[in-house]
Amino acid sequence: MNLNKPELEGTAHLLDELDKKLMVLLRDGRTLIASTNLRTWSYIRLSRGYMWVNEYGDIPRGVFIVRGENVVLLGEIDIEKEDDLPLTEVSVDDILDAQRKEQELKQEKQRLLSKALKERGILQRCKKTVFRIAKLIPPIREKIEAELETISKNFEDEVEERTKHLTYVTSLPENRLSKEEILNKLNQNLNLGEYDWKSGLVSGAVYYFSQDLIDIISEVYGKTSYTNPLHADLFPGLCKMEAEVVRIAASLFHGDEKACGTMTSGGTESILMVCKAYRDYAREVKGIKRPEMVVPTTVHSAFDKAAQYLKIRVRSVQLDPETCQVNIKAFRRAINCNTVMLVGSAPNFPYGTMDDISAISELGLRYNIPVHVDSCLGGFLTCFMEDAGYPVPLCDFRLPGVTSISADTHKYGFSSSVILYRHPKYRHHQYTVTTDWPGGVYGSPTVGGSRSGGNIAVCWATLLNFGREGYVTATRDIIHTTRYIEKGLRRMKGIFIFGQPATSVVAIGSNDFQVYRLSSALKELGWNLNVLQFPSGIHICITHMHTQPGVADRFLKDVRDSLGEILKDPSIPVEGKMAIYGVAQQLPDRSIVGDFTRRFLDSMYYIPKRNNK
Ligand SMILES: Cc1ncc(COP(=O)(O)O)c(C=O)c1O
User: What residue's CA is closest to ligand 1, atom 8?
Assistant: First the structure.
């Protein structure tokens, strides 16, 4: 390595005390910015090489530029005396020595990190094993079973309480019921539930409610419920409508004429399908037999579901705690020769933040790995936001590395879901084809076989009924309301907002009190928000229901009033049902949380033992 005379002379100026950013003005007119907010020797990649920053404690002492084999000393800097920055030379030996030290330090850090991870892994595994073995010990097993039975009983009691004024139909009625009797029972069932979602007191769940639209889709479903798109020869019109839905969606996400896809029953099925497509593509084209996907920790749990169904290993990458976007450096490090797909959310469910899709797209191109953008939640907002006056970063096929997008027409598109691919070669691997079945050659594009064509027709009719203008207006109203709520919340003491909400989800946390207390307080006032964990938080997903006059102001007032009460004594722990979320996060054995959840799912099918008919 050669040390040149300092041809790149210049001066360094402290730009930002907090971030310890330096601006280096070179004599030849160029400017470099270097962050020195690092404890030890480190380098920062710049467009034209590397800049080395030598720090002792907090004081950066020298800045060097390494270009190829040449090292150029830029200056020795004492940030205490930023006006007087002498440019002095250092010897090659100094630099090499420093590099060696840095290397040693890096190795030491890596050794410590892998030791810590190993120990943590060992600790986790030990804990898991201890719990697994402990659960086999009869008295402990009995105790756990007894606890789970109590939990089941509590869930069942809730069902009993909720439905105590109704009877259950538990066998076929001997004689057919009349239309009136059926509609009567239907209404009784629909009226169950304590939350007033029609007044906009619920996060997400119902994205749009309009009697006009309901009238149209009721008629459309009525005309198409009996159709079965599995039989394309019998119902070619249904295939035509599905093709049109896919084409409309592909255009909205800026796909070219090769872009293609299928409709599915919902976001989870779209995700399941894209994971299958990429797993099978990678096996056939690249010979990958142990497939892995790299995803942010915030990616929807449907990816875990797909991974469990399809035997794909999930590499979850941590977020940048400030932005709540996936940490791109860590994301890159998680890629290996078994990676079959990279995933980013636009936006994610928990915080509503959008990952840096452009950076993920570049990684996809660099390593030749397909990139999926999960826009299930916000896709039918992001593609209208620019026209609605709220531009968002690129997150569709305009980014060359993006190879697929999932977007739920049943959320802001208000009916079912689509999975889109940049190229048909991926969609081919989504299909399931069996050629040797005695029942005939069988091919199906998605999970379902026979299914009602009604869902296709309803989605198609909804898209046509809104039209571009309808979606832009709905998007404008939803984003305007979200920004209004976000702004109001940011002004309140005792809470903070996670990252920068990209579309319609605003997530709230607190450093001052247990944030689930806010959730409990709002529940008392009729609100139903989503609960987040690791770290604790709550979120509201703004839908068209919240754009009704007065809803946003009522929400802000209720949050403000609740905070007023809570902050009188921030130390009070959360009580009641919400306390369970807090406790669940502390449990090292996640299998208990899993058992608990299974009991809840069981309770959905529970039928009270009383005078049922
Ligand atoms: C970002 C994201 N992806 C996927 C899904 C899964 O969609 P679905 O519930 O329709 O299966 C959701 C659902 O909320 C979501 O928010």
Answer: 267
Enter the tokens of residue 577: 């049902």
Is the pLDDT assigned to residue 144 strictly greater than 80?
Answer: yes
Single-letter code of the amino acid located at 594: G
Whether residue 7 contacts residue 24, with contact meaning beta carbons closer than 8 Å, is answered with: no
pTM of the model: 0.79
Q: Among the atoms of ligand 1, which is closest to the Cα of residue 411?
A: 10
pLDDT at 330 over 80: yes
Give the atom of ligand 1 at the shortest distance from the alpha carbon of 271.
Answer: 4
Please report the beta strands in 47-113, taking only residues with DSSP state E, as ranges in sequence order: 49-56, 59-67, 70-76
Tell how far the Cα of 138 is from the centroid of ligand 1, in angstroms.
40
> Ligand 1 centroid to 218 CA: how many Å?
25
Task: Give the β-pairing of 260-264 and 70-76.
Answer: unpaired
Distance CA 391, CA 384 (A): 9
Which residue is closest in CA terms to ligand 1's atom 10?
Answer: 267
| Helix (H) or strand (E) run with residue 598 in it | helix 590-603
Model pLDDT for residues 518-543, shown as the tens digit of each residue: 999 999 999 999 999 999 999 999 99
298, part of any domain: yes
Q: Does 325 reside within a domain? A: yes
CATH number for the domain including 501?
A: 3.90.1150.10
| Ligand 1 centroid – CA 302 distance (Å) | 7
Nearest to 347 by CA among 156, 502, 172, 539: 502
Is 462 among the domain residues? no
Structural domain span for residue 58 = 2-102
Pairing of strands 49-56, 59-67: antiparallel
Instruction: Please state the rounded mean pLDDT for residues 241-268.
Output: 97
Please enumerate in sequence order all residues whose Cβ is within 8 A of that of 473, keeping only pairs 6 or more positions apart, or say none: 388
262: which 2 tokens?
A: 């299928």
**Using one digit for the tens of pLDDT, what is the confidence trace for 379-415?**
999 999 999 999 999 999 999 999 999 999 867 655 6
pLDDT in tens, 89-101: 344 455 556 556 6
**What CATH number does residue 325 fall under?**
3.40.640.10
Whether residue 241 is contained in a domain is answered as: no
Q: Quote the CA–CA distance of 491 and 464 in Å, as a whole number.
A: 40
Best residue for ligand 1 mutational test, from 377, 380, 416 (most atoms within 8 Å of Cβ): 377
Cβ(49)–Cβ(66) below 8 Å = yes
Identify the residue whose tokens are 């198409």: 224
Atom 7 of ligand 1, nearest CA residue: 267
Residue corresponding to tokens 């979200």: 482
